[in-house]
Each structure stands twice: as C-alpha cells, then as structure tokens.
C-alpha cells in the first residue's frame, strides 16, 4: 500500500504546487474572483487582529504560499496529515471564489463552473482522507483509548492479585490462631 499512498500524495500535492506557484507569481489575475470571498472575510480578519492582511491581492498570495508549501509537503511525504488539512482549508475559499455556479446565468458556463466545483469537492474528499490517514499505524485516539483499556485491565489484575494475597494471609492467620489456641507451633 505504501507505493499507492506515495503516488496519491504526489499527484494530489502537484495540483497545489502548480496552483500555489501561479497565485504567488501572478496574484492579480485571481483578485477579481477572490474579491467575492476576501471582501466578506476582510472584516472578520480585521476584527480578529488589525495586523492581519485584508487586501485581496495579499490574501491571494498568502493562500498561494499555503498551497505551494502544503503541496510540497504532501507530495514529498513530510507532515502529510497537517499539510493535507491546510490544503483542505485553502481549497474551500478557492472553490467558492473560483466556481460560483449558482450565480452564473449562461447555462454552458454554469455547467462548466459546476463541474469544476464538484471536482474540487472530490479533491477536498481526497485531502480529508489524506489528513486522516495514519498509514496503517494506530492513530492518537486509538492509542489513547487502548492505553486506558490497558491501564484498567492492569488495575483489575492488580486488584485480583491483592484479593488473593489477602485471602491467603487471612487463611494463614486463622491457622496460626488455631495452632496458638491449641498450644502448637507452626513450622516456619
């Protein structure tokens, strides 16, 4: 399965490397479409932190850098889960800004945007799979739940062992008391 994962990550990452590089090198060509999203996001960014960029051109470049870096990481097999998650986050505004089929009047153009929108949803699905792929190794949630189960089992075994030891000690104490009452000494 390892070669399939590597090939899938390389193919998925390549898409973002190319698109990210284009956005960084020539952001102005994406600004008119991006304004649909950036004009709505800018006030939220301003409210969150006034130092954050809000200009459409800068946000296109930031998104491009994130796609370029995330694509390189995903394609190279380094930090694949966080890279896929970042790419998924960048794909959402890109898709909404680039392919708003719901607002296009021309039927042919609308179909084209709808196809690209659905394609991007499919890519998003692949990114979500990549973000959750543990490569056959147990994930953090599985390891945590099994550590709890293991600790619980160990505690139960310890409790049973203590109960056996207590029963044995109790039995030996009864025997010692009977022997003492009878005036005998136990070997020992």
Unreliable stretches: none
Overall pLDDT score: 90
How many domains make up the coordinates? 2
Give the count of helical stretches. 6
In short:
The protein is mostly helical and 188 residues long.
Explain what the structure shows.
This protein has two domains: 2-137, no CATH class; 138-188. The protein is elongated and about 110 Å long. The longest helix is centred in the C-terminal third of the chain and has 43 residues, at 140-182. Helix 3 (56-76) runs antiparallel to helix 4 (80-98). The chain is mostly helical and 188 residues long. It has six helices and no strands. The mean pLDDT is 90.
Indicate the topology.
Blueprint: H1 2-25, H2 31-48, H3 56-76, H4 80-98, H5 107-132, H6 140-182
Helix pairs in contact: 1-3, 2-3, 2-4, 3-4, 4-5
Summary keywords:
elongated, 188 residues, single chain
